[in-house]
């Protein structure tokens, strides 16, 4: 403590306050007698220069931010494809206003601003497309077994691996937010639903966050252009091959209503198809959750 106090020319009390602040980011700094403060493991920092050298997009790397989505929503005069990425979000959010736990340097948190040539009314099924793209990128890293849960969750053995949040900026543009669990340990607090990390799925000791970020950004930029030309219909087969519930009995909850039947993937608008006693029905809006029997 004394050595840190001398080095940074601040009091031990101020040092302690800074340490507590860092712990709030999700970094579990420990204190060892006669050795001082210690990190539990090496942090693989995001490298803005490296990422920029391998993508064609404008990139904003902001280490500590409230929300990458919010940053782009509040920005003006930015180009389509601009990316905001962060080490830690203090107010990360998911669908339905849920908190997205974002410990420092553990996962990937980034958002992309996108301007649709035909306006946001043409963004039918976009979250489904994004989910497919992410799983396919993961497969290029040798990560297998990741499945999709309608409308846009990535899961491994029924535990959530990633989330997608799409928010509109105006009538022409939107922001696509992605949170992907990479290195979080299964003991992480603050998450109520079952979840997992790529480090567990891939069964390896490390993953290169920079290379994964580069691959995801490049794939999104390319596939979003393809999506604008062809819509969801060119992604239906790709989704159905990855759908965790395809051909299985499911319960679909819409408010107080329950729909039971056999899940049959999606249609050209990204709607969920369920074969019930009334025939093949589709569902696309409302407060919907999907649960396997």
Automatic annotation (TrEMBL):
<dbReference type="GO" id="GO:0004077">
    <property type="term" value="F:biotin--[biotin carboxyl-carrier protein] ligase activity"/>
</dbReference>
<feature type="domain" description="BPL/LPL catalytic">
    <location>
        <begin position="44"/>
        <end position="228"/>
    </location>
</feature>
<keyword id="KW-0547">Nucleotide-binding</keyword>
<dbReference type="InterPro" id="IPR003142">
    <property type="entry name" value="BPL_C"/>
</dbReference>
<dbReference type="InterPro" id="IPR008988">
    <property type="entry name" value="Transcriptional_repressor_C"/>
</dbReference>
<dbReference type="InterPro" id="IPR004408">
    <property type="entry name" value="Biotin_CoA_COase_ligase"/>
</dbReference>
<dbReference type="Pfam" id="PF03099">
    <property type="entry name" value="BPL_LplA_LipB"/>
</dbReference>
<dbReference type="GO" id="GO:0005737">
    <property type="term" value="C:cytoplasm"/>
</dbReference>
<dbReference type="GO" id="GO:0005524">
    <property type="term" value="F:ATP binding"/>
</dbReference>
<dbReference type="Pfam" id="PF02237">
    <property type="entry name" value="BPL_C"/>
</dbReference>
<dbReference type="InterPro" id="IPR045864">
    <property type="entry name" value="aa-tRNA-synth_II/BPL/LPL"/>
</dbReference>
<keyword id="KW-0092">Biotin</keyword>
<dbReference type="InterPro" id="IPR004143">
    <property type="entry name" value="BPL_LPL_catalytic"/>
</dbReference>
<keyword id="KW-0067">ATP-binding</keyword>
<protein>
    <recommendedName>
        <fullName>biotin--[biotin carboxyl-carrier protein] ligase</fullName>
        <ecNumber>6.3.4.15</ecNumber>
    </recommendedName>
</protein>
<keyword id="KW-0436">Ligase</keyword>
<dbReference type="InterPro" id="IPR036388">
    <property type="entry name" value="WH-like_DNA-bd_sf"/>
</dbReference>
């Amino acid at each position: 403590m004394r050595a840190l106090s001398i080095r940074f020319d601040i009091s031990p009390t101020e040092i302690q306050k800074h340490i507590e602040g860092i712990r709030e980011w999700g970094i579990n700094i420990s204190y060892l007698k006669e050795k001082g403060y210690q990190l539990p493991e090496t942090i693989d920092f995001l490298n803005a220069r490296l990422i920029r050298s391998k993508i064609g997009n404008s990139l904003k790397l902001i280490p500590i931010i409230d929300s990458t989505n919010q940053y782009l929503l509040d920005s003006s005069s930015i180009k389509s494809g601009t990316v905001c990425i962060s080490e830690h979000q203090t107010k990360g959010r998911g669908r339905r206003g849920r908190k997205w736990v974002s410990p420092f340097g553990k996962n990937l948190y980034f958002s992309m601003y996108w301007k649709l040539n035909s306006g946001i009314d043409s963004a039918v099924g976009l979250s489904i497309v994004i989910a497919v793209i992410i799983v396919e990128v993961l497969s290029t890293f040798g990560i297998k077994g990741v499945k999709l849960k309608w409308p846009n969750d990535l899961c491994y053995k029924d535990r959530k691996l990633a989330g997608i949040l799409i928010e509109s900026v105006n009538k022409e543009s939107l922001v696509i937010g992605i949170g992907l669990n990479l290195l979080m340990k299964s003991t992480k607090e603050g998450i109520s639903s079952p979840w997992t990390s790529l480090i567990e799925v891939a069964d390896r000791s490390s993953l290169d966050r920079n290379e994964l970020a580069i691959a995801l950004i490049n794939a999104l930029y390319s596939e979003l252009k393809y999506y604008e030309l062809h819509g969801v219909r060119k992604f239906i087969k790709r989704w159905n091959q990855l759908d965790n519930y395809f051909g299985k009995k499911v319960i679909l909850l819409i408010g107080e209503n329950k729909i039971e039947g056999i899940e049959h993937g999606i249609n050209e608008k990204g709607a969920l198809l369920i074969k019930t006693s009334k025939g093949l029905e589709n569902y696309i809006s409302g407060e919907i959750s999907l649960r396997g029997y």
